[in-house]
C-alpha cells in the first residue's frame, strides 16, 4: 500500500484512480483530504472524481467490470464528492445553475445506482439536484417539484412490476397540472416505447445519456 | 380458428410437426405454447432474453420484419432467418418455424434425492376406514335411501363411531350402492366426525396423502401411506410457470398485467400437479381417489398463485404477502381442481412474512430447527431460486429471503444443468498443468455441469490462481484450456468435445461466473446480515444446516472457499436435501405437526433485507470470491 504522503499531483491522481477502481471509500477520502491540505482546489479534485465515475460507467457498460465493482466505485466516489460539496463553488457559466432537477427511483423499487450516477453528472454542471432516493411515492415527486420549482424530473425503475408506479406518477402529474414538467425516465425495466406510450418527455438508456439529454434540454431552454 | 373471411393464421412447428390455427395478431410464442409444447420465455415475453428464438422456414412474407430492438437481441442471427417468437405477431397465412430443443422445458430432467425417505414418525391418520358388509335390501320399493342410510349408520355405531353426518360427496355415492347381492363397502370418515366417502369393496388399507413442494423452479410430489407413514413414490417436474418468467419478479409482473394471467399461472400449476399425481400413483400402483389429505408448501408467491390470490403486494417494496398467515389454511379438494378424492382436504402451511413462506416453516420443522434451545446459534439455509435463511439463538429467531436466482440450478449458465445422469458434479484442476479431473453422476460421458460441479469449478479456478477474486480470468496466462469468446469473455475448457456427450467442449465462461457470483453474493449477504442484526459471531454457530438445491455431493470446503457459505468449521455443517418437502410430508403423517408449524411461523420474525440501507454495499462486497 502506498503510504499517505504527498509526492505531487500526478502521484495523488494516480492513487485516486486506483482507489476509485477498487471502490475503497475510506482511502479515497484520505487521498482527497491529502490533496486539499497540499493546496489542491476542491473543484480540481471533484472534476477528477467525476471523470473517474464516467470512466467506470464506461467500463461497466462494456462489461469489463461487474456490478459489484461498479457499485463500490461509484458509491465511494459519490460519498467523497458529497464531502467536497460544501466548499465547491461550481463556476459553470450557463443558466444551468439556476435550474433544479428532481430525481428518484420509483415506489416499489430500491435500485438507485443509475440515478446516483446521473446526480453526480448533473451536480458537476452546477445543476441543483434534489435526490429523493429510492422507493419514492408519486406524491413525493409532486411535492418536491412544487417545493423546489423544479423544471426537470428524472425517474428510474429497475424492477418491471414497479413500472405501474410510473404510470400512476404520470396520472398524478396531470391531476396536479404539472404535465409541462419535462420528465425523463430510465432504468432496466423501461424502454423508449414505454416512455412514449405513457407520455414521458424522454427516455435514456444509460445514466450518462440521461445527463446529456437533461443538460441539453436545460441549456437550450435556459 | 377461422375469421369471418375464412382466412386464418396457421403455424407449423418443426421438428415436432405440430400445427395450430390461431386468430390474427396472436404472438408466435403464445401460438407455439398452444400446441402444447412447453416453450420458454424466461423474460416474460418482453423480447429481452432472446431465449425464444425460432428459425422461420417459410411464410416470412406474412410477418412483419424485426424491429430494431429485436435485431439488437438477435445480434446478427436475424440475417439467418431467426426471430424472437415473443416479438412476432401472426398475420393471415401459414408460417413454418423450427424450434431448438433447448428452448423446451424438459419435464423429467430432475432427480430427487434418495436420502429423503427416512421418516420415523408415529402416524396419526385423520382418515378412518370402516369396511363393512351391506346386507341385501329386503322388502319392497318403499325402503330406499333412508333405510340404507340408517343401516350404514348402525354399522358405524357398532364401530364406536360418533359420526352421523354424511357430507354431500358421500350422500351422492350412497345412491350408487344398492347391491343386488350382499357386498362389501368401506365407509371413510374424517376424525370420527363425518362420513366423507363410501367406496366399493374393502379399501381399508388405502389411505393416501400427498405432500406438494411448490418451488419457483421445481414442483415435487410425495405420495405417502398415511397408515404407516411411509413414502410410496415421488416425482417432480419443472414448474411450468417458468414459461411466464423465470424469477418471481418477472412472474409477478406478468400477473399484474391482467387478472386472467393469474388464472393461467394457477392452471399451469394445477396441470403440472395433476400429471404428477397420476405419475406417483402409477408408480406406486395406487388410486388417485384414495388420496384424502394434501399438504402444500412453497414461498408466499407460489402459495398465493396456487390459491388464486392476486399477489400484488409481493411485487412492490416492501414486498409483503397478502396474509402473513400464521395459521394453516384449509381448503377442500373440491374447491381446487386436483384429481384426488373429492372430499380431500388441502393444508397450506403458514408463512412467516415477505418471501419467507410455508416452505421455510416446513424446512425448520423437518430439520428439528425449532427445537434448538442451547446457548449457541443455529443457522439454516434453504438454497434454491429463492433462498431462505433462518437464524436462531436463545434471544432471536429471524428469517430472511434472498433472491438468489437459479444459477446454481444450472440456469443462465452455458453448460449448466440439473443434477441428472451425465452432469459433472465434482471437479479437480491441476495447479501446474491445468488438467481437469472430473466426476459425473452415473459415471456417464459429461453433458453439462450441475450446481455442486459449478461450486467445485469456481473453487478450483480460484485455488490454482487463474481467476481474480473479482471472478475474471487473470491476464497473460497461457493454456490451451483458456480462450476468449467474443460473447461471454474468457472461458475455461473443462472437457474437450471428444470426451463429452454433447459434441462440443464443456466450458465455464466469465459470463457464467458472473451469474454464479450474483447468486452466491445474494445468499451470503442474507446470511451475514442476519448474523449482524442479531449480533452473532461466526464462532458462535453450533450448526449450519444446508437444505435445498445441493445434494450430498456438495463440497462444503469449496462452498466456503468461494464464499457461498460463512466460514464455519466443516464438522458443524449438516447437509439435509429437500427439507421443505419432508416437512410437508410430516404434517400429513401426523397432524400434531401442523400446530407446531403454526408455532414456528408465529415465533419466527421476518427480517426485510430490502429495507436495510447497507444491503447493496454488503452485496457488492460479497460478490468477490475471497470474501
From TrEMBL, chain A:
Report one GO cellular component.
cytosol
- Top-level taxonomic group: Bacteria
What is the protein name stated in its UniProt record?
B12-binding domain-containing protein
Which species is this UniProt entry from? candidate division WWE3 bacterium
Q: Which GO terms describe its molecular function?
A: cobalamin binding; metal ion binding; methionine synthase activity
Family matches, as Pfam families = B12-binding (PF02310)
Instruction: Specify the B12-binding domain's residue ranges.
Output: 98-222
UniProtKB/TrEMBL annotation, chain B:
Q: Where is the 2Fe-2S ferredoxin-type domain?
A: 9-103
Q: Which CDD domains match?
A: fer2
Q: Name one GO molecular function term.
A: iron-sulfur cluster binding
Query: Which PROSITE patterns does the entry mention?
Result: 2FE2S_FER_2 (PS51085)
Q: Name one Pfam family in it.
A: Fer2
- According to UniProt, the name of this protein is DUF4445 domain-containing protein
Amino acid at each position: 500500500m502506498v503510504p499517505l504522503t504527498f509526492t505531487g499531483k500526478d502521484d495523488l491522481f494516480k492513487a485516486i484512480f486506483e482507489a476509485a477502481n477498487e471502490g475503497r471509500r475510506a482511502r479515497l477520502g484520505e487521498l482527497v483530504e491529502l490533496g486539499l491540505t497540499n493546496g489542491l482546489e476542491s473543484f480540481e479534485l471533484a472534476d477528477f472524481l467525476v471523470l473517474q465515475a464516467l470512466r467506470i460507467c464506461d467500463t461497466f457498460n462494456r462489461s469489463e467490470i461487474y456490478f459489484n465493482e461498479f457499485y463500490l466505485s461509484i458509491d465511494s466516489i459519490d460519498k467523497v464528492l458529497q464531502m467536497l460539496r460544501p466548499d465547491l463553488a461550481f463556476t459553470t457559466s450557463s443558466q444551468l445553475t439556476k435550474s433544479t432537477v428532481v430525481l428518484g427511483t420509483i415506489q416499489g423499487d430500491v435500485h438507485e445506482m443509475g440515478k446516483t450516477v446521473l446526480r453526480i453528472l448533473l451536480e458537476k454542471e452546477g445543476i441543483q439536484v434534489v435526490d429523493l432516493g429510492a422507493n419514492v411515492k408519486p406524491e413525493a415527486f409532486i411535492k418536491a417539484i412544487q417545493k423546489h420549482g423544479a423544471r426537470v424530473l428524472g425517474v428510474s425503475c429497475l424492477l418491471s412490476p414497479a413500472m405501474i408506479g410510473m404510470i400512476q406518477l404520470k396520472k398524478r402529474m396531470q391531476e396536479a397540472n404539472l404535465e409541462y414538467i419535462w420528465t425523463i425516465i430510465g432504468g432496466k425495466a423501461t424502454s423508449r416505447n414505454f416512455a412514449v406510450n405513457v407520455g414521458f418527455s424522454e427516455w435514456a438508456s444509460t445514466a450518462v445519456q440521461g445527463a446529456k439529454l437533461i443538460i441539453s434540454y436545460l441549456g437550450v431552454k435556459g | 380458428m377461422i375469421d369471418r373471411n375464412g382466412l386464418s393464421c396457421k403455424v407449423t412447428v418443426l421438428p415436432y410437426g405440430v400445427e395450430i390455427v390461431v386468430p390474427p395478431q396472436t404472438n408466435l410464442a403464445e401460438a407455439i405454447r398452444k400446441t402444447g409444447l412447453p416453450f420458454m420465455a424466461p423474460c416474460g415475453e418482453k423480447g429481452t432474453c432472446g431465449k425464444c428464438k425460432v428459425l422461420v422456414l417459410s411464410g416470412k412474407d406474412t410477418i412483419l420484419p424485426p424491429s430494431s430492438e429485436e435485431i439488437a437481441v438477435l445480434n446478427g442471427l436475424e440475417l439467418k432467418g431467426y426471430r424472437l417468437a415473443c416479438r412476432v405477431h401472426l398475420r393471415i397465412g401459414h408460417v413454418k418455424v423450427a424450434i431448438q430443443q433447448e428452448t423446451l422445458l424438459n419435464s423429467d430432467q430432475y432427480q430427487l434425492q434418495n436420502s429423503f425417505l427416512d421418516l420415523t414418525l408415529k402416524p396419526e391418520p385423520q382418515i378412518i376406514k370402516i369396511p363393512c358388509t351391506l346386507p341385501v335390501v329386503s322388502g319392497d320399493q318403499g325402503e330406499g335411501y333412508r333405510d340404507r342410510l340408517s343401516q350404514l349408520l348402525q354399522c358405524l355405531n357398532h364401530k364406536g363411531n360418533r359420526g352421523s353426518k354424511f357430507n354431500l360427496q358421500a350422500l351422492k355415492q350412497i345412491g350408487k350402492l344398492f347391491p343386488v347381492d350382499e357386498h362389501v363397502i368401506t365407509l371413510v370418515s374424517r376424525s370420527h366426525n363425518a362420513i366423507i366417502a363410501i367406496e366399493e369393496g374393502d379399501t381399508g388399507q388405502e389411505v393416501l396423502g400427498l405432500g406438494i413442494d411448490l418451488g419457483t423452479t421445481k414442483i415435487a410430489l410425495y405420495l405417502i401411506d398415511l397408515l404407516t407413514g411411509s413414502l410410496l413414490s415421488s416425482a417432480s417436474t419443472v414448474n411450468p410457470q417458468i414459461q411466464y418468467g423465470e424469477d418471481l419478479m418477472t412472474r409477478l409482473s406478468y400477473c399484474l398485467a391482467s387478472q386472467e394471467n393469474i388464472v393461467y399461472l394457477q392452471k399451469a400449476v394445477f396441470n403440472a400437479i395433476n400429471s404428477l399425481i397420476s405419475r406417483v400413483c402409477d408408480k406406486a400402483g395406487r388410486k388417485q381417489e384414495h388420496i384424502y389429505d394434501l399438504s402444500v408448501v412453497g414461498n408466499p408467491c407460489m402459495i398465493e398463485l396456487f390459491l388464486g390470490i392476486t399477489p400484488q403486494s409481493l411485487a412492490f417494496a416492501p414486498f409483503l404477502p397478502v396474509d402473513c398467515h400464521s395459521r394453516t389454511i384449509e381448503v377442500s379438494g373440491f374447491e381446487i381442481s386436483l384429481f384426488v378424492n373429492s372430499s380431500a382436504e388441502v393444508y397450506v402451511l403458514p408463512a412467516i412474512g415477505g418471501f419467507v413462506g410455508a416452505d421455510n416453516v416446513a424446512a425448520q420443522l423437518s430439520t428439528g430447527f425449532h427445537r434448538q434451545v442451547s446457548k449457541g446459534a443455529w443457522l439454516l439455509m434453504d438454497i434454491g431460486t429463492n433462498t431462505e435463511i433462518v437464524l436462531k439463538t436463545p434471544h432471536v429467531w429471524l428469517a430472511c429471503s434472498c433472491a438468489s436466482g437459479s444459477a446454481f440450478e444450472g440456469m443462465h449458465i452455458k453448460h449448466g444443468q440439473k443434477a441428472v445422469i451425465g452432469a459433472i458434479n465434482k471437479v479437480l484442476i491441476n495447479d501446474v498443468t491445468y488438467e481437469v479431473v472430473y466426476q459425473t453422476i452415473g459415471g456417464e460421458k459429461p453433458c453439462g455441469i450441475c450446481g455442486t460441479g459449478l461450486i467445485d469449478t469456481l473453487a478450483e479456478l480460484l485455488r490454482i490462481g487463474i481467476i481474480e477474486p473479482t471472478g475474471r480470468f487473470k491476464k497473460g496466462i497461457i493454456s490451451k484450456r483458456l480462450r476468449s469468446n467474443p460473447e461471454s469473455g474468457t472461458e475455461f475448457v473443462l472437457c474437450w468435445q471428444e470426451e463429452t456427450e454433447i459434441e462440443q467442449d464443456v466450458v465455464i465462461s466469465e459470463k457464467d461466473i458472473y451469474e454464479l457470483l450474483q447468486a452466491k453474493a445474494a445468499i451470503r449477504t442474507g446470511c451475514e446480515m442476519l448474523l449482524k442484526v442479531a449480533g452473532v459471531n461466526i464462532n458462535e454457530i453450533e450448526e449450519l444446516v444446508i437444505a435445498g438445491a445441493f445434494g450430498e455431493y456438495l463440497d462444503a470446503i469449496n462452498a466456503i472457499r468461494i464464499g457461498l457459505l460463512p466460514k464455519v468449521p466443516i464438522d458443524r455443517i449438516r447437509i439435509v436435501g429437500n427439507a421443505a418437502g419432508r416437512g410437508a410430508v410430516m404434517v400429513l403423517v401426523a397432524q400434531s405437526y401442523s400446530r407446531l408449524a403454526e408455532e414456528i411461523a408465529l415465533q419466527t420474525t421476518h427480517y426485510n433485507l430490502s429495507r436495510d440501507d447497507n444491503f447493496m454495499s454488503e452485496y457488492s462486497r460479497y460478490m468477490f470470491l475471497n470474501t
